[in-house]
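hey all, quick one before standup. I had two proteins in the batch that finished overnight and I want to keep them in one place so we stop losing track of which output belongs to which input. First protein below, input sequence then structure tokens straight from the run.
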Amino acid sequence: MDDLFRITVQFLHVFSGVLWIGGGLYTLFVQTPALLAAPPAARGPVLAQLAPRQVRYLLRVAEVTIATGVLNVFATGRAQQFGDPFAQRWTIVVGIGILLALALYGLTRGRIVPAVTRLLALGPKAAGGDAAAASEMTAIIAQLRRIGFAQIVFGVLIVLAMVTARLS
């Protein structure tokens, strides 16, 4: 039973991590360019349907990834190794991975959610011909793209940390 629990937790952790990082990549490289290529009149309604769902999805898979990652430390029986977190490479890289994952989650909650909320508020104004709203939307989209690339860097570092931990 313990092996089944450990394997299930590890699977859920890796699977949700792939969904989290992959969802960010998909948003950055597929959805955003497609949205920007759409006629301006169609962007608002599409954004209003897509953005809240995408944000909810990314937050939930991030939360599952983090929760199963912490649970994984206990499921593998290695929690006691954190008594001296700098004694072994495994605890160092897992600690770094946890901090990076929490930072990435904080970036999503603290920067992406407010930016998307603002985009949704500006959408109808921009569609109505408000040039200032359209200009602000452009700036927010550029900011979200920069944050998206930062997410990719965080994701790569997290994956490297987890691979290093797995091989430790």
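OK second protein, same deal, sequence then tokens:
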Amino acid sequence: MPIPIAALAALTACPCEPAASADAAKSDAAQADGSHLDAARADVANGDAVSRDHASQDVVAGDAAAPDSGPLLQPDECAAMQPGWIFCSSFEEGSKAIWDDYDGNPDDTNLLLADPGPFSLANNHVMRLRAPQVGDSPSGADLVKVLPASHDRLYARWYVQWEPGYDFSARNHGSGLHAGSRDLLGTSGNRPNGDDWFTSWLEPDPASTTLYAYTYYRGMYQDCADPNGSCWGDHLPCTVDEGYYCEKPQHRETVMPSTLQSGRWYCVELLVDGGTPVASEALADGTIDWWIDGQEIGPWTDLWLRTSADLKLTILWLNLYHHGLHSVEGLLLDNVVVSTDRIGCR
């Protein structure tokens, strides 16, 4: 996707941050309202209906589909919406229309693919994200969903596979939840004011090949070169090996995340709770928590995420972003849910 010149300049200044995506730079006025989602689900309400997706030019054949694992699991999890679910995509819609991207999601970066997915299901589809290789320049691919309403607290769950051959050592940024204006999606390098935005993404650490929640918020402190606001995102958990990153023992790992492997599926879930809007960190009660294959890695509590009750979670961002040289192989996504209640793994 195109990267604004100003954002590229910011990336050159500090190699640890993503530029704002092309989607984040556009007006919110063009947002799709998502009202066509119910109609799309009606077309895929049973396992046989999804075979119609093969006729769509947006969907291409991938690996040969494995036999269906049984009647209890069907490709379209979203056909049976659960209490609390506010958005769901199993990529059985036949197109990318339910996503709110302005760059058109070209198939060379965002490809709907016939693939057995995390449950080896026949007629299943996934989304493949691959960042273009443009020399050693930053590049990325993403899906943006502007949620139908804003919330103080949300869970997001998705299944992810880093493709065989994926280079975990390449610096990257991942997927998560964003509070505030879409124009601030992908903003980096500064501590939020508390009334403008906060965000948390799950992404692999190139040094350890484990996940962490890369988080921007009012009380962030771990990599702040300038006390007046110049910061890069906090790591949750932060590891002792990162030295100055771990000034607060409560932000160190209590459960060590497992080492990631390419070519296998993981179930990941993220909780972001903005907490009570307060003017002081001493009173803060925001929470970040996340799970991998059902194993809880947090929580991290008493985080100062916001100062204003008007600042709420508004966007799900599924993202693959690289700062420079990286593998051609990217990642696969499936079974995406955003909910007001804990979702868990299928």
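Flagging for whoever picks this up: The two ends are 32 Å apart (CA to CA). Residues 5-13 form the longest helix (9 residues).
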